[in-house]
Amino acid sequence: MFLQFDISFWLSCSFLEAYNIFRRMQKNESHYHSCEILIKALLTQNCLDEALDVKRIAETHIKGFTLNSAASSLLIISQVRRDYLKDALAVLKGMLDSGVLPARPAVTALIQALAEKGDVKNLQVLENILGDVTKSVGLSDSLLPNAIALAHTKCNDLDTAVKYLETLLISGAQNPDQAVKSISYLLRKVSEEGLEPALEKFGAMAERLASQCGIYRPVTDLFLQYISADRVDDARSLLQRWDAIVQERRTIGRFVARSASQPGQAKRIEALLELIPEHLDPAAAYRYLLRCYELDGDVASVKATYEKAKAKNIELHEISLKSLATFLKKVGEPVPFTEPPETLKFYVEKWRNRRSEAS
Q: Under 8 Å CB-to-CB from 314, ≥6 apart: which residues?
């Protein structure tokens, strides 16, 4: 047999050792699933050339051999990392032509890479290829338009970027089923890359949409980008001009939750508590702020924030109290309240069930 090894064989070898054994096999048949496993393993080890070699041999020896969605998506990500964007686009097109949906991270990686290259043409090709499957893949309605606007920006064509995006935002406000609402990705990228003229231009567009069309999501995105970039004075000035920003509660709430998912983001929530304290759910805001400090390992700030919440009579959720107790015990500090008796997982599930029932 060309290849009779099962999955346990591949896992017992180093991936490159398994690849070398595979290359020495000379007969005419192969084990479909084992080839797929080997290709995925090689891709996870950044061995793109070897993975493509296995794929070529498998396609030669196994009738009808095709990679499944997971392996093809890994292949796209690997090709994007190597800057083989046209190859990645071809793989994606082949998947969709075969009725196979790619994983969201693969499509997102390709979109973002094309945007960074300023490749408007291939982004438009990709937009046509994806068609109506964007929701099935789990892509945000705003990602591709943001990427196309960023690509125009990278090509020093700001006017086209603004005109393109502004038209879509107005159209989306009139037709919620086709809404392109957020410009947060675009604003984040131009801010991170120091493209200040672009940020100013898109900021002016956001304020124009607010004043002329009553569309406030873009100006809220700008406000939150200022918060992210620690430009609190700019955020304050924008808020003074557009107090409707505070009505975008769901957008601000998601921003706060995301900020608590990685270290070093406590300043974001601190700034919001300074600028719009009466428009935040205090229990949620302090829960996420405590989580930020826990991720940072900032014992002093954790203790001070708990005391501040207590002084304000803010009732912390069981999740917060359990997480806080676990953190304090881990760093050898006393727990200044009665620790909830169940596991953190129990309280998270309890909270999720409550939310599910409420919706």
A: 282, 283, 286
